[in-house]
Amino acid sequence: MFKKTLTLAVAATTLAIAAPALAQDTGATIGFIGGFTGPIESLTPPIFAGAQLVVNQINEQGGILGGELKLISADGACDATAAAAAADKLINTDNVTGIVGALCTGETIGAFNGSGLSGNVVFISPASSAPALTTLEDNDLVYRTTPSDALQGVKMADLLLAKGIKDIAITYVNNDYGKGFADALSAAYTAGGGTVAANLAHEEGKADYRAELGNLVASQNLVILAYANASGNTILRQAVESGNFTTFVGGDGMVGDDLLAGIDPSAVEGLIATRAGAPTGEAVDIYNAFTADGFTANATYAPQAYDAAFLLALAIEKNGSAEREGLSDALRDVASAPGEKILPGEWKKAVELIKAGTDIDYEGAGGALDFDEAGDVDGIIVELAVEGGAFVEKGQIQ
């Protein structure tokens, strides 16, 4: 759905008590860019809570670089221009070391191109899933902890075909996320023998999409690739009112409580959705047991945000300073084999191993995080369905 970004701040200087000279504080600051306003505002707070939990855990276990880890958030509004301004503040005023974010793909690209590249800042996005991120010219600075929509599109196609859905109409929000997802879905669905009766973009922010829906009635199976509390909700509500569609399908951007606002739950019972998931195993079990104010372990992209923040902090500790130089190499080092496994929450153990010169390999809430050359990770996609007015996860799509 979205794309990668991440930032950490340099430590400030303070006057040591009863000392005649200034001393450099230890610790580090990282940034978070996400759409706290705009089309994903209902999805962003739980994602941010995943990153904040990491900061709390690290500080409870002795901190980073011998001092406190701080997290500064900024609103990217799921918009490239707003994200560029947010990144400029975090990078050039707050002097963060690296950034978790952004979330929407265009938001991540705008933030990185605005100040990230020139500032030599590592970005780790927990949610930017558009294929466009793979080919971004980034000097090995942009990573993501969620799989690309190149995978999600294929898995959605597989799921629909397995359910016997032989034709679909697609409407997608006209941005990197929507187009990339729609292209991947259309190609895989057609290759699998399905028929894409229509595949049309729509613009965000309109009050009326009835004309667009009128161009999609060649199939009764409507796929909406948009955002839950923006065009996704409006299109779904007006599609239900039209009576022209019997099956509704959405991508990860649609998985939010706001999607069903103003819609009779019985009218969308069984709505199909997909999003990034996590494998079974000890790392996932540990993560799912975490509790904190505002934190929901299985919220959309919360596990990926936790992993992004934990990896960024590990890379800073491995790099030995809050400087940006060398952080990308350190990130690849702590995220990949060989090395002793570090699981969610095992910050103190990781620091002790790093200080002892022992290689580590973080295995996260979203699974293994071995970045490829482009900064992408493999992953799994899960199916969800609306049951009784709420999204219920049904399992991994094989």
UniProtKB/TrEMBL annotation:
Residues 1-23 form the signal peptide. One of its GO terms (biological process) is amino acid transport. Keywords: Amino-acid transport, Signal, Transport. Gene3D superfamilies: 3.40.50.2300. Residues 29-335 form the Leucine-binding protein domain. It comes from the Bacteria. Belongs to the leucine-binding protein family. This is Amino acid ABC transporter substrate-binding protein. The lineage of its organism: Bacteria, Pseudomonadati, Pseudomonadota, Alphaproteobacteria, Hyphomicrobiales.
